[in-house]
Specification:
alpha/beta; two-stranded antiparallel ribbon
């Protein structure tokens, strides 16, 4: 039987209006002040855990920028059923139901997981990270290899990704959205979709971004912390420089139609992950798990066997 546990949920009382027609999610108090901060402070992340065989390493999914743990709902259920393993999906800080913080560094996101995974008795685990989550997964494996039994980085490399991403454009479009108060949910989503469409022309990407639009006390807000993401976009697009390597089995799972991982990235991949394999999923873009879910599951299962 599948079961889940919710670790943390943002209280509805934590929101305040910042304008006459639209609310923004405020930044939660933190001992870290972002750039130049001394030490990151771990946050209690929101998660969903599907039960399975404790003797097998659990599979842990980390979503990408603007995503949430719900991105992997159907895949997590399928893997739990097909492999008998425990499967954990996690909301990163400033995403989904996890707390907000001005610190959006990969060091901070890694530290969050260094607290959560041992707490849930899920180490060592199979760590699967997409995009931003893939960079978090790579850094955690490099910092604490004893916590990661094997690693899967989905359509991302330990290199800068600015030139191929449209995330800055998406964020600007999201920040410009204006929705009147007290409109029905269906009308709010339609208004947001119409306002995003001139900039975000791909309907699948718009639908993905709109999963972050939530209703709080009769008004619609973005649950992602756009302020913190905007301030740290350069950090999110980059990757911390590391000298040490991760000795465990590693799979770089790429979208055949994506340009996020370039052949020029391969030497750095081999340096940091000497046991790396690369596999391409045909007809998949950057969101491999959404474009080709069955092929995505098959690739993970093949790497687990």
């Amino acid at each position: 039987m599948l079961r889940w546990a919710q670790a943390w949920r943002l209280p509805h009382g934590g929101f305040r209006p910042s304008g006459p027609s639209f609310w923004r999610v405020p930044v939660a108090p933190s001992s870290s002040s972002g750039r130049g901060a001394t030490e990151p402070r771990p946050l209690p992340l929101s998660y969903k855990l599907l039960d399975g065989e404790a003797a097998l390493p659990a599979v842990v999914f980390l979503h990408g920028l603007f995503g949430s743990k719900t991105n992997f709902n159907s895949i997590a259920k399928a893997l739990a059923q097909q492999t008998g393993r425990r499967v954990l999906t996690v909301d990163a800080r400033n995403h989904g139901d996890s707390p907000h913080s001005p610190d959006m560094s990969y060091e901070a996101m890694s530290l969050d997981l260094q607290g959560l995974l041992p707490q849930l008795d899920l180490v060592p685990c199979v760590l699967v990270g997409h995009s931003m989550g893939g960079k978090t997964a790579m850094l955690l494996a490099l910092q604490r290899p004893e916590l990661v039994e094997r690693l899967i980085a989905v359509d991302i490399s330990p290199m800068e990704t600015t030139s191929v991403s449209n995330f800055v454009t998406y964020m600007a479009a999201m920040r410009a959205i204006d929705i009147p108060a007290e409109v029905p949910r269906s009308r709010a989503r339609k208004l947001a979709d119409e306002q995003l469409s001139p900039v975000v022309q791909d309907i699948a990407v718009r639908q993905f971004l709109l999963t972050n639009l939530v209703e709080v006390d009769g008004r619609f807000v973005w649950r992602v912390n756009l302020d913190a993401l905007a301030q740290h976009m350069d950090t999110i697009m980059a990757f911390p420089r590391r000298q040490d390597s991760y000795p465990g089995p590693t799979l770089f799972l790429l979208g055949g139609n994506s340009q996020f991982v370039h052949p020029s990235h391969h030497p750095e991949i081999r340096r940091l992950f000497p046991r790396a394999q690369m596999k391409t999923v045909p007809d998949a873009g950057h969101w491999v798990h959404a474009d080709r879910p069955q092929d995505f599951i098959a690739a993970i299962r093949g790497f687990l066997d």
